Amino acid sequence: MLVAGTIGSRRFESDVVLNAREARRATLNGETLRSAEQLRLELQSLVFTPDRLAVVKGGPAIRRAYLDRTLGRMFPAKASLPVEYAAAVGQRNAALRRLAAGLSSRDAVGPWTETVATLGAALVEARTAAVDVLSAPFGACADRLGLHSATVDYEGEPATLAELEGRFEKDLERGVTGAGPHLHDLVLRAGDRELRSFGSQGEQRVAVLALVLAEADALAGRGGARPLVLLDDVLSELDEERRRSLAEIIASGGQTVVTSTSAGVLPAEPSQLLAVTPGTVRDA
After folding, report:
1. Are 258 and 234 in contact (CB under 8 A)?
2. Which CATH superfamily hosts domain 52-225?
3. Domain boundaries for CATH 1.20.1050.90 within the chain
Protein backbone atom coordinates (compact mmCIF):
# COMPACT_ATOMS: atom_id res chain seq x y z
CA MET A 1 0.00 0.00 0.00
CA LEU A 2 1.69 3.20 -1.22
CA VAL A 3 0.75 6.48 0.47
CA ALA A 4 2.10 9.97 -0.26
CA GLY A 5 1.24 13.22 1.47
CA THR A 6 2.33 16.06 3.73
CA ILE A 7 2.45 16.42 7.51
CA GLY A 8 3.14 20.01 8.43
CA SER A 9 5.64 21.20 5.82
CA ARG A 10 7.14 17.75 5.42
CA ARG A 11 6.31 15.69 2.35
CA PHE A 12 6.54 11.92 2.58
CA GLU A 13 6.01 8.75 0.60
CA SER A 14 5.50 5.51 2.47
CA ASP A 15 4.94 1.94 1.36
CA VAL A 16 3.66 -0.80 3.68
CA VAL A 17 3.69 -4.42 2.50
CA LEU A 18 1.39 -6.95 4.17
CA ASN A 19 1.94 -10.62 3.50
CA ALA A 20 0.35 -13.57 5.29
CA ARG A 21 3.66 -15.44 5.30
CA GLU A 22 6.01 -12.60 6.21
CA ALA A 23 6.35 -9.83 8.76
CA ARG A 24 5.10 -6.42 7.73
CA ARG A 25 7.62 -4.35 5.81
CA ALA A 26 7.63 -0.57 5.53
CA THR A 27 9.61 2.06 3.68
CA LEU A 28 9.66 5.82 4.16
CA ASN A 29 10.91 8.04 1.35
CA GLY A 30 12.58 5.02 -0.21
CA GLU A 31 14.37 3.91 2.95
CA THR A 32 13.50 0.54 4.52
CA LEU A 33 12.57 0.90 8.18
CA ARG A 34 13.81 -1.46 10.89
CA SER A 35 10.20 -2.45 11.58
CA ALA A 36 6.76 -1.40 10.44
CA GLU A 37 6.13 -0.08 13.96
CA GLN A 38 8.85 2.53 13.41
CA LEU A 39 6.46 4.22 11.00
CA ARG A 40 4.35 5.29 13.99
CA LEU A 41 7.23 7.38 15.30
CA GLU A 42 8.21 8.81 11.93
CA LEU A 43 4.68 9.70 10.78
CA GLN A 44 2.45 10.51 13.70
CA SER A 45 -1.25 9.93 13.24
CA LEU A 46 -4.15 9.81 15.68
CA VAL A 47 -7.24 7.71 15.06
CA PHE A 48 -10.81 7.72 16.32
CA THR A 49 -12.88 4.62 15.60
CA PRO A 50 -16.04 3.40 17.37
CA ASP A 51 -14.11 0.59 19.07
CA ARG A 52 -11.91 3.19 20.78
CA LEU A 53 -14.74 3.66 23.29
CA ALA A 54 -12.95 0.86 25.16
CA VAL A 55 -10.55 3.55 26.39
CA VAL A 56 -13.41 4.80 28.57
CA LYS A 57 -15.63 1.71 28.89
CA GLY A 58 -12.96 -0.97 29.22
CA GLY A 59 -10.69 -2.05 32.05
CA PRO A 60 -7.64 -0.22 33.42
CA ALA A 61 -5.21 -2.19 31.21
CA ILE A 62 -6.73 -0.61 28.09
CA ARG A 63 -6.33 2.90 29.49
CA ARG A 64 -2.78 2.20 30.63
CA ALA A 65 -1.90 1.01 27.12
CA TYR A 66 -3.49 4.12 25.62
CA LEU A 67 -1.58 6.37 28.02
CA ASP A 68 1.72 4.63 27.32
CA ARG A 69 1.26 5.14 23.56
CA THR A 70 0.49 8.79 24.24
CA LEU A 71 3.56 9.37 26.39
CA GLY A 72 5.67 7.71 23.69
CA ARG A 73 4.42 10.27 21.16
CA MET A 74 4.85 13.21 23.53
CA PHE A 75 8.21 12.16 24.93
CA PRO A 76 9.94 9.93 22.34
CA ALA A 77 13.03 9.55 24.55
CA LYS A 78 10.81 7.84 27.14
CA ALA A 79 8.84 5.66 24.73
CA SER A 80 10.68 2.50 25.81
CA LEU A 81 9.92 2.96 29.53
CA PRO A 82 6.63 0.97 29.57
CA VAL A 83 8.28 -2.00 27.82
CA GLU A 84 11.34 -1.91 30.08
CA TYR A 85 9.17 -1.72 33.19
CA ALA A 86 6.92 -4.58 32.05
CA ALA A 87 9.98 -6.72 31.35
CA ALA A 88 11.37 -6.02 34.83
CA VAL A 89 8.05 -6.93 36.47
CA GLY A 90 7.98 -10.14 34.44
CA GLN A 91 11.49 -11.03 35.58
CA ARG A 92 10.63 -10.30 39.22
CA ASN A 93 7.49 -12.43 38.98
CA ALA A 94 9.49 -15.28 37.47
CA ALA A 95 12.08 -14.99 40.23
CA LEU A 96 9.32 -15.10 42.87
CA ARG A 97 7.87 -18.27 41.35
CA ARG A 98 11.28 -19.93 41.15
CA LEU A 99 11.87 -19.09 44.81
CA ALA A 100 8.45 -20.46 45.80
CA ALA A 101 9.28 -23.69 43.97
CA GLY A 102 12.58 -24.03 45.81
CA LEU A 103 14.60 -23.50 42.63
CA SER A 104 16.25 -20.24 43.63
CA SER A 105 17.14 -18.03 46.59
CA ARG A 106 15.76 -14.73 47.82
CA ASP A 107 18.95 -13.03 46.69
CA ALA A 108 17.88 -13.60 43.09
CA VAL A 109 14.73 -11.49 43.60
CA GLY A 110 16.46 -8.47 45.13
CA PRO A 111 18.01 -6.95 41.99
CA TRP A 112 14.70 -7.20 40.13
CA THR A 113 12.89 -5.55 43.05
CA GLU A 114 15.29 -2.61 42.82
CA THR A 115 14.85 -2.40 39.05
CA VAL A 116 11.06 -2.51 39.32
CA ALA A 117 11.13 0.32 41.90
CA THR A 118 13.47 2.49 39.79
CA LEU A 119 11.72 1.98 36.46
CA GLY A 120 8.29 2.20 38.09
CA ALA A 121 9.08 5.62 39.53
CA ALA A 122 10.32 6.82 36.14
CA LEU A 123 7.22 5.46 34.41
CA VAL A 124 4.82 7.13 36.84
CA GLU A 125 6.68 10.41 36.39
CA ALA A 126 6.42 10.13 32.58
CA ARG A 127 2.75 9.15 32.64
CA THR A 128 1.92 12.00 35.01
CA ALA A 129 3.76 14.46 32.78
CA ALA A 130 1.84 13.21 29.73
CA VAL A 131 -1.49 13.63 31.54
CA ASP A 132 -0.49 17.13 32.67
CA VAL A 133 0.17 18.12 29.04
CA LEU A 134 -3.10 16.52 27.89
CA SER A 135 -5.35 17.83 30.66
CA ALA A 136 -6.04 21.42 29.56
CA PRO A 137 -6.68 20.74 25.85
CA PHE A 138 -8.84 17.73 26.78
CA GLY A 139 -11.05 19.87 28.99
CA ALA A 140 -11.29 22.57 26.33
CA CYS A 141 -12.13 20.15 23.48
CA ALA A 142 -14.66 18.26 25.59
CA ASP A 143 -16.33 21.53 26.62
CA ARG A 144 -16.67 22.65 22.98
CA LEU A 145 -18.25 19.28 22.19
CA GLY A 146 -20.81 19.64 24.98
CA LEU A 147 -19.13 17.55 27.69
CA HIS A 148 -18.61 20.14 30.40
CA SER A 149 -16.21 20.09 33.35
CA ALA A 150 -14.36 17.11 31.87
CA THR A 151 -11.10 16.06 33.49
CA VAL A 152 -8.49 13.36 32.99
CA ASP A 153 -6.39 12.21 35.95
CA TYR A 154 -3.69 9.65 36.57
CA GLU A 155 -4.37 7.57 39.66
CA GLY A 156 -1.53 5.75 41.35
CA GLU A 157 1.72 6.32 43.20
CA PRO A 158 5.04 4.62 42.42
CA ALA A 159 5.85 1.60 44.54
CA THR A 160 8.98 2.40 46.54
CA LEU A 161 11.70 -0.12 47.25
CA ALA A 162 10.60 -0.16 50.90
CA GLU A 163 7.00 -0.88 49.89
CA LEU A 164 7.99 -3.73 47.57
CA GLU A 165 10.25 -5.26 50.22
CA GLY A 166 7.51 -4.83 52.84
CA ARG A 167 5.04 -6.86 50.80
CA PHE A 168 7.58 -9.51 49.79
CA GLU A 169 5.86 -12.43 51.55
CA LYS A 170 2.51 -11.58 49.99
CA ASP A 171 4.05 -11.31 46.52
CA LEU A 172 5.90 -14.57 47.07
CA GLU A 173 2.67 -16.34 48.00
CA ARG A 174 0.86 -15.05 44.92
CA GLY A 175 3.80 -15.22 42.52
CA VAL A 176 3.17 -11.69 41.21
CA THR A 177 4.22 -8.14 42.01
CA GLY A 178 1.20 -6.59 43.70
CA ALA A 179 2.11 -2.90 43.62
CA GLY A 180 3.30 -0.50 40.95
CA PRO A 181 2.23 1.32 37.78
CA HIS A 182 1.18 -1.92 36.07
CA LEU A 183 -1.91 -1.66 38.32
CA HIS A 184 -2.66 2.06 37.95
CA ASP A 185 -5.51 3.70 36.05
CA LEU A 186 -6.42 6.74 33.99
CA VAL A 187 -9.73 8.22 35.13
CA LEU A 188 -11.99 10.39 32.99
CA ARG A 189 -14.72 12.41 34.67
CA ALA A 190 -17.40 14.95 33.83
CA GLY A 191 -17.77 16.99 37.00
CA ASP A 192 -17.89 14.47 39.83
CA ARG A 193 -19.09 11.61 37.60
CA GLU A 194 -16.65 8.92 36.50
CA LEU A 195 -17.52 8.40 32.85
CA ARG A 196 -16.71 4.70 32.82
CA SER A 197 -19.47 3.89 35.30
CA PHE A 198 -21.78 6.88 35.15
CA GLY A 199 -21.43 8.32 31.66
CA SER A 200 -23.84 7.73 28.80
CA GLN A 201 -22.48 6.16 25.62
CA GLY A 202 -22.75 9.56 23.95
CA GLU A 203 -20.64 11.15 26.68
CA GLN A 204 -18.12 8.34 26.50
CA ARG A 205 -17.89 8.80 22.74
CA VAL A 206 -17.31 12.54 23.11
CA ALA A 207 -14.64 11.89 25.76
CA VAL A 208 -12.66 9.61 23.45
CA LEU A 209 -13.00 12.09 20.57
CA ALA A 210 -11.84 14.90 22.87
CA LEU A 211 -8.78 12.84 23.85
CA VAL A 212 -7.81 12.43 20.18
CA LEU A 213 -8.26 16.11 19.38
CA ALA A 214 -6.55 17.18 22.61
CA GLU A 215 -3.50 15.05 21.87
CA ALA A 216 -3.26 16.58 18.39
CA ASP A 217 -3.29 20.04 19.99
CA ALA A 218 -0.77 19.01 22.64
CA LEU A 219 1.67 17.54 20.12
CA ALA A 220 1.42 20.63 17.91
CA GLY A 221 1.90 22.84 20.96
CA ARG A 222 5.15 21.08 21.79
CA GLY A 223 6.69 22.38 18.59
CA GLY A 224 6.22 19.39 16.31
CA ALA A 225 4.12 19.02 13.19
CA ARG A 226 0.44 18.57 13.87
CA PRO A 227 -0.30 14.85 13.40
CA LEU A 228 -2.67 13.52 10.79
CA VAL A 229 -6.05 12.91 12.47
CA LEU A 230 -8.34 10.13 11.20
CA LEU A 231 -11.96 10.21 12.41
CA ASP A 232 -13.85 7.11 11.32
CA ASP A 233 -17.66 7.13 11.64
CA VAL A 234 -17.42 9.94 14.17
CA LEU A 235 -20.58 11.78 13.11
CA SER A 236 -23.19 9.06 13.47
CA GLU A 237 -23.96 9.71 17.14
CA LEU A 238 -23.28 13.45 17.30
CA ASP A 239 -26.14 15.91 17.15
CA GLU A 240 -26.06 18.89 14.77
CA GLU A 241 -24.62 21.31 17.33
CA ARG A 242 -21.75 18.95 18.21
CA ARG A 243 -21.08 18.33 14.52
CA ARG A 244 -20.70 22.06 13.97
CA SER A 245 -18.38 22.33 16.96
CA LEU A 246 -16.28 19.46 15.62
CA ALA A 247 -16.09 21.15 12.22
CA GLU A 248 -14.80 24.33 13.87
CA ILE A 249 -12.17 22.41 15.83
CA ILE A 250 -10.77 20.48 12.88
CA ALA A 251 -10.83 23.58 10.66
CA SER A 252 -8.42 25.34 13.02
CA GLY A 253 -5.37 23.63 11.57
CA GLY A 254 -3.72 20.40 10.50
CA GLN A 255 -5.04 17.62 8.32
CA THR A 256 -8.11 15.67 9.35
CA VAL A 257 -9.79 12.85 7.45
CA VAL A 258 -13.45 12.24 8.35
CA THR A 259 -15.30 9.17 7.05
CA SER A 260 -19.05 8.92 6.79
CA THR A 261 -21.61 6.78 4.98
CA SER A 262 -23.28 9.94 3.64
CA ALA A 263 -21.86 13.27 2.53
CA GLY A 264 -25.08 14.88 3.74
CA VAL A 265 -24.12 14.56 7.41
CA LEU A 266 -20.84 16.45 7.01
CA PRO A 267 -21.11 19.62 9.12
CA ALA A 268 -19.04 21.82 6.79
CA GLU A 269 -17.73 21.94 3.25
CA PRO A 270 -14.63 19.70 3.15
CA SER A 271 -11.41 20.73 1.43
CA GLN A 272 -11.65 17.50 -0.55
CA LEU A 273 -14.50 15.03 -0.84
CA LEU A 274 -13.82 11.47 -1.95
CA ALA A 275 -16.34 8.75 -2.68
CA VAL A 276 -15.15 5.23 -1.86
CA THR A 277 -16.77 2.17 -3.39
CA PRO A 278 -15.38 -1.38 -3.57
CA GLY A 279 -12.22 -1.13 -5.63
CA THR A 280 -12.44 2.60 -6.44
CA VAL A 281 -11.75 6.01 -4.92
CA ARG A 282 -12.90 9.09 -6.88
CA ASP A 283 -13.53 12.78 -6.39
CA ALA A 284 -17.14 13.38 -5.43
Report:
1. yes
2. RecF/RecN/SMC, N-terminal domain (1.20.1050.90)
3. 52-225
Instruction: Give the DSSP letter of residue 39.
Output: H
Measured CA to CA, the distance from residue 172 to residue 52 in angstroms comes to 36
pLDDT in tens, 23-75: 777 787 777 777 766 666 667 789 999 899 999 999 999 999 999 999 999 99
Q: What is the β-pairing status of strands 228-232 and 256-259? A: parallel
pLDDT confidence of 187, banded at 50, 70, 90? Answer: very high
Rounded to 10 deg, the angle between the 201-221 and 110-144 helix axes is: 100
Report which of 24, 47, 173, 168 is spatially closest to residue 101, judged by C-alpha positions.
173
Q: What angle do CA 176, 177, 178 make, to 5 degrees?
A: 105
Mean pLDDT for the stretch of residues 198-217: 96
Cβ(231)–Cβ(48) below 8 Å:
yes
Looking at the DSSP assignment, which residues form a beta bridge with residue 12? 5
Task: For residue 270, give the DSSP letter.
Answer: -
Say whether pTM exceeds 0.90: no
Quick check: helix, strand or coil at residue 233? coil
